[in-house]
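Dear Dr. V.,

Thank you for agreeing to look over these. As mentioned in my earlier message, I'm a first-year student in the group and I'm still getting used to reading structure tokens, so any feedback on how I've presented them would be very welcome. I ran two proteins. I've put each sequence directly above its structure. The first is here:
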Amino acid sequence: MKNLFAAFRGYLTDLIAAWDSFWFTPVDPAVLSAIRVVTGALLLWTHLIWTLDLGAFFGPEGWVAPEIAAATHVGRMTIDIFPWLGGGWLLGLFHAFSLIVFFLLMIGWASRVVAVLAFVLAVMYATHVTPGAFFGLDKINCLLAMYTLLGPCGARYSLDRLLRRRRGENADPPASVSANIALRLLQLHLCVVYLFSGLGKLQGVRWWDGTATWFAVANTEYRSLDFTWLANHLWLVDLLTHATVFWELFYCVIVWPRLARPWVLLTAVGMHGFIGLGMGMPEFALAMLVANAAFLSPELVRGLLDPVANRVAGLLGGGGST
């Protein structure tokens, strides 16, 4: 019995140590900083497009009547400020402020403050549900913005770091526990997203009979590149359909082992690349790949981005990496 209790105590100690290591090991904030750059760019682009017809999307005389918009918010925690803004200069001023915030997030100025503002603003736009304009991209934008605010997202690849160097301060960011927590939460959230996406597909007959991929690429409303040649290779259509369901269902398991992770992420590139190119959703594909980047190592990200950052810093007279 004594040996049993000793073995259990050892197992419990190892479990607690593994938990602490998973959540609280300091990591280089390079990955979170890189995610911030692309998240800011996606938010800026998404909301800049809405500028083309801002009143139709968010004005009181737009596509959705105020009473219908209000009804969609019953029983939900929302931050719908647009009914109070009206459709005139006040709406335009608020929108211009939002675009500036998203741009500042992208370039990394006052990053910790701007990240909070960007998340709140993104949620404000997303909760003003406009039929025909609220897609997965808006949800993933909010997801990414939420996790950038939890850690030092401006530690690298930012104007903040460049300014610190110009002031002669030590701009080399230390390893961060909060950066690790932000990335871990993003990783787990992504696992949940894919799991429920796979479970949702199991409710559709076409995912069972292997034809879902064909109906997706044959839809002329979304098509950007012509993949109808797949009609001559029905075995490939069937394989892509079932492989997609399998990958989404088991992503939450197979992405964690180090040997399997590169293959899982390469599959993500292929799948979301296919969605972006074949179904006219490049921004959504990019957003999902940015979320998958949470599984990349800081060494890989720095190897890819530091040379570019050093070049930009040199052009701006920063004397080092941004």
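The second protein is here, in the same arrangement:
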Amino acid sequence: MKNSKSIYITTTVISFLIGWDGYAQFLNNGDFKVNKNTMVSIYFDYKNTSVGNFINDGDVHIFENWDNDGIVSYTNSENGKTNFRGTTEQIIEGAKPSDFQNVVFENAASAVPFHLSATLTVGKLAEFNKGIINADDYGGLVVFKEDAFHTKVGNQSFVDGKTENNVDQPFEFPVGDALFFRPAFYESASSAGTAYTSQYFFKNSGFLYPHTSKDESIITINNAEYWEIVQNLGTEKIVLSLTLSTTTTPSIFFDENPDTELAIVRWDDTAKKWVNDGGMLSDSATNQDYSKLLTAQVGGYGIFTMAIVKKTTPEPSDLIIYNAISPNGDNINDTFHIKGIDKYPDNTVEIYNRWGVKVYSADSYNESDIMFKGYSDGRATYKRGERLPTGTYFYTLKYNKSGKSIEAAGYLYVDNP
């Protein structure tokens, strides 16, 4: 079946079926627009040629392969949804990006039913219901545009390959490898002009860079998995969280030892060694596909994994940092108190949740009026002024002492009524 003119589907009837006996492909050489409140089902291969223009503001269901060499888009004022719901494995390809407002992956034909060899962009929401998207073997890429996110991601459905995020808000990269969902989380301090690409590998990073070349503080580097984080746009350093899972992470990384701790390590191509970026370990309470999170503000980009490192001994300080607050109005531990900080007004305090999302930041923190009281001043996950949930957070403190920059970090427990 060929379309060389324009098709505008405007009916409000629940379905418009595209199918034609004797044809294996729908070839679009013209304009194909699906309007709001219209459902279209395509039961054989769809080919959008270099002169094709596919606009979806309705509800389109794709049951076979998808190939785009032209324009695939939507009208921003509508809520177009494209559903990949095949009963056999589906190829998603094309020379041009397919720009979907909302996209649903739901194919139970196999564990890995989607073969992505093109760029697929998400404008609003990607719903990972069933089926892993294999982008790694086919050179594909999933891009989340500004304000875009995803739902239902897990071992049953994720991107095996590269994903990109083009906005500075806190973001979970929905990546994994083999049959394992192993996301990375990040928070950017910048307000605009940032973009990052992430991929997870269930492989030994030692085959890329020798684990014997490392900082003195590093004892054992994870030899089973690693992540690659690339900064495409921007200049700042992110707060990164890596996930630990008993299905992929070596068991030694779950053993407790009073003389060691876990840290994010990164291959530094200039120093030609693995460097210790530090880290705070916390439990994951929201996802059963991984059990712990390791969070740190990293010093660069490239290949990351985790390592067992020597426990650091804090530099002696005349500050006393109290690591628990219960802001219930009884004037006891109502604020995050750093005793002595008034002597060092040139300071910055930042507080992050377990996913590396910044929930509080202040300059010139003190003991009277600029203090953390258990409320968010973040930009995204929690609205400014919103009471934060009870749980473990971590803080970073930077201050200037006699011309020397000193940094401290640790846990902070918030018990909010």
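From my reading of the second output: The radius of gyration is 25 Å. The CA atoms of residues 209 and 261 lie 22 Å apart. Does that match how you would interpret it?

Kind regards,
E.
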